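Sequence in, structure out. Go.
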Amino acid sequence: MPKFSLSMKLPNHSKLLFIGDSVTDCSRAQPVGEGLFEALGKGYVSLVAGHLGAAHPGAHIRVVNMGTSGNTVRDLKNRWQRDVLDLKPDWLCIMIGINDVWRQFDTPHIPEGHVLPDEYEQTLEELVRATLPTVKGLVLMTPYHIESNPADAMRARMDQYSAAVKCVAARHNTHFVDTQAAFNAVLAHTHSASIAWDRVHPDIVGHTILARAFLSAIDAL
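Output:
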């Protein structure tokens, strides 16, 4: 008979909501990513739900995916009431920032679409501060760039945004996941092209890296 861990930080019957950009979205159901078949999308959120159901079947964790492709932290703020607060999660996981950085590189001529570091950290701070009183647990995951060279321009910029997430997590004593560190451990053994053709949207290996990093943070592995 399998032995199931009882040490997971998520209490039984918790509602766990993920919010972010396309890496979280992964073709999830609209308007709310919850339900049968591929409602949770095809990425790390689905892998997390699968692991929780298999390794912690008695916990009956309810997983909801509210990722939206292309979003920045500015977009999250605009939909926060509807897509987070109104859904009343017990636990919330936020991973945002990739597009905040990417737009500075792929559309440098459209500055109004750029979310610079000060706005990024301030907005994330506002969202965390507004949400903490309403949830039992909050996990902040850094953005990442699947690039092993820290001197690469976009990787270096992404590291700045990751540092901002770490600061916000430390100020509010939330759970923190360094996704760049999780990818770096794998990139020591393989090229980024084998995980993500554009160094942003991962394959199943990359999504498994993200899922394992999250599950480790809540002691669910």
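Check: Residues 1-5 have pLDDT under 50 and may be disordered. The longest strand covers residues 15-20.
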